[in-house]
Every structure is written in structure tokens, then in C-alpha cells.
Amino acid sequence: AQSVTQLDSQVPVFEEAPVELRCNYSSSVSVYLFWYVQYPNQGLQLLLKYLSGSTLVKGINGFEAEFNKSQTSFHLRKPSVHISDTAEYFCAVSEGIYNQGGKLIFGQGTELSVKP
Amino acid sequence: DGGITQSPKYLFRKEGQNVTLSCEQNLNHDAMYWYRQDPGQGLRLIYYSQIVNDFQKGDIAEGYSVSREKKESFPLTVTSAQKNPTAFYLCASSIGRGLHDGYTFGSGTRLTVV
CA B86 to CA B109: how far, in whole Å? Predict the structure, then answer.
């Protein structure tokens, strides 16, 4: 069965520093990969997605992620964070629409805390 | 603007009561999902529906029920059989129809047992 592991539950970082949020998945078939952001008491908003093609994916708010098939990873990066990036970030994987109806499996979340 | 509307935003339930959480979308999406979120546990799938009049149990369906009588609506009932219902509930939808572009989420309903 597929699973998603976010390797850090909390990541504190200073403003304007770079950040990497790590995500590993397990699956024996081709996957679709997603990163979502959640601000307090709100729903999740899509940051970026990998469906196919280039392994470097750019998203909103200056975030990007790289799909590494050999390491089964999809780490999220931003070169310079802002206070407003403070939120919880979720990595998610789907084994595709023909398997299990395209359901997403979510990681446990990483709390990014940006300090001035 | 298209999107998903969840209501109410906050809901209080007494012991032994059933409550229904509303989820409506105007995105013309075929598939809809209900997730439960607890601190430190990520999102856990309760029920999902890929088409009108059909739905499947997720990983934690016990104590919950759903219906999908209209494409736009996917209400979730939290029954008295759910022993620990206090949580944040999220509804989501996706295109379905053999396509996958991720989910669109509602803003959530926070349910508290009093």
C-alpha cells in the first residue's frame, strides 16, 4: 500500500533563509504528487503538483519541488521565506485515477514557523 | 467564483446526537471526499464518492454516514456511534472522469462535543 512520510513535524527558520520540507513516499507504480498549505482554521490550498514531465515543479508563492523517482522523494523548497509562509504543509500522493479512485494519501504534515 | 462551501464553520454536538455537516460545490466535479483532521495525525479519509448515488468507505468510516443524491452536494452525518467526534472536518472535490488535477478543499467545519 502506498504511504507518505514527512520527515520533519516542525521546521523553525528565520525570515529570508532558505527552507526544505522533506517528503518520501512508497509506491510500486507511477504516482501523482502534491504539496498543500494550510493556514490556521482553514482548508488546504494547492501549492504545486507533479503529474508527469519535468521533475522540477514550480508552484505558487515562490515554492518549488523536485520529484526524484530513484529516491521516492518530493521535497519542497523555497530560497527565501517570509513571515507569511508560517503554516502547515502537507505532502500527498495518488497512485492514479484507475487505482483506488484517485484518492490522495496525505503525510502527517510539517509545521513551518518563520521567525523574524 | 467556483469553489466548495462547507457549513457551518463551527458546530457543537451533545452526547448522543446526530449532526450533519454540509458540503456543496459548483465546480462541476464528479468526485467528492470527506476527511477528518486531528492534531499530529494528518488527514484521514472517511468516505468518498466518484459519482452521484454511489460512495465508498474510507479508512475511518465507522460512526459516519453520507449521501450523494446530487452532483453538487455530499453531506456527512456524524452519528452517535462515533465515540470521539471532536475534530476538524474537511470536504474536497476533484474532477474525476479519468482525470486527476488534485483536490479543491472547503474551509472546514470544526465539530466539538459538549
Answer: 11
